[in-house]
Design goal:
323 residues; mainly alpha; 0% strand
Length: 323
């Protein structure tokens, strides 16, 4: 346990004193603050029209600012935090010859990787909590809207999901740091996997769905074909952690969102009488109901994060470190 704490403390100090962490944190914080500031200014200018909004404080995180909202920005660029914190965590020690010195001390081998991963998770948590608190302060100062109890709990759930999401990419970067001896190689492999899973999987889902069930001709396309096309696209796109995270956080932050599916597909599956009846029940979901909606997404994100770290742990434990 003492060895784990020593590694954890050393890695935490290295993270907070490194220039790359300071630069990355400043960049992400600046963009998040600007987006939330623009959303807050828009809310202040339209306070009269927001009198019927039941959870106005959450709009600071879900409203699109100059380019995108806070949750959209973390969804796209949050993985960079995890990748930067872990892409050289193991192979840097090996290249400097300090890894063999670490394990020659009264420190167990598993304490090395556990300490590095825990230090990364704590760093990610401190970073996200700091950004959310500052954005919340912006909301109180600019708009004067005080968050309710349910809004606070929704923000806490959002923070937990964000920590697991970024920790997933931290585990990926540590895994590549174990597999590859070159620091540049592990960095490129991590970024390549992030680009593929975050962007190309969604594009591939569109191509696959349109290939299996074409819906190009409006005269020959039936509602059943559109539903089949969407289901194929939805199932394929959810192989991307970014899609899982985006759908889950959008539902948590927006209580009016009843499902992770798009509204167009929902309306397509309803007849006019069902649409009229559903419009009479436009009440926000409770936090418990929103959690039930996103339970599969949350479970998948947590499971992928733990599996990725478990693979890294097993590979590191059986790897020869004296080479």
């Amino acid at each position: 346990m003492q060895g784990l704490y020593a590694i954890f403390k050393k890695e935490l100090r290295d993270h907070f004193t490194s220039y790359r962490f300071v630069i990355l944190f400043a960049l992400i914080a600046m963009v998040s603050f600007i987006s939330s500031y623009m959303a807050g200014i828009h809310m202040r200018e339209n306070l009269e029209g927001m009198s019927g909004v039941k959870f106005p404080f959450l709009l600071l995180f879900s409203s699109t600012g100059a380019l995108f909202s806070m949750i959209q920005f973390v969804s796209f660029f949050g993985p960079l935090i995890g990748l930067v914190l872990g892409f050289d965590s193991i192979n840097r020690e090996r290249a400097h010859g300090t890894l063999i010195k670490l394990v020659s001390q009264p420190i167990y081998r598993d304490a090395v990787i556990n300490g590095k991963f825990l230090a990364g998770v704590v760093t990610i948590s401190i970073m996200l909590i700091s950004i959310v608190l500052v954005i919340s302060g912006f909301g109180l100062a600019l708009v004067g809207v005080v968050p309710g109890i349910e809004e606070i709990w929704r923000i806490i759930v959002y923070l937990i999901l964000s920590i697991f999401y970024i920790s997933l990419w931290l585990g990926v970067s540590i895994l590549f740091s174990i597999f590859f001896k070159g620091i540049a190689t592990s960095a490129l492999a991590s970024v390549a996997l992030w680009i593929f899973l975050s962007f190309f999987v969604s594009l591939g889902a569109d191509v696959l769905a349109n290939t299996i069930v074409p819906i190009g001709n409006a005269n020959e396309t039936t509602p059943e074909d559109v539903i089949k096309n969407y289901r194929i696209k939805e199932t394929t796109a959810r192989f991307s952690p970014m899609v899982l995270y985006s759908e889950a956080t959008a539902t948590i932050i927006d209580p009016m969102q009843k499902t992770t599916r798009t509204s167009d597909l929902i309306n397509l599956r309803m007849n006019p009488m069902e649409e009229m009846l559903s419009s009479r029940f436009e009440n926000p979901l409770t936090l418990g109901q929103s959690l039930l909606v996103v339970f599969p997404h949350t479970t998948a994100l947590i499971a992928i994060t733990l599996i990725c770290f478990a693979i890294s742990y097993m590979v590191f434990m059986v790897q020869e470190i004296r080479t």
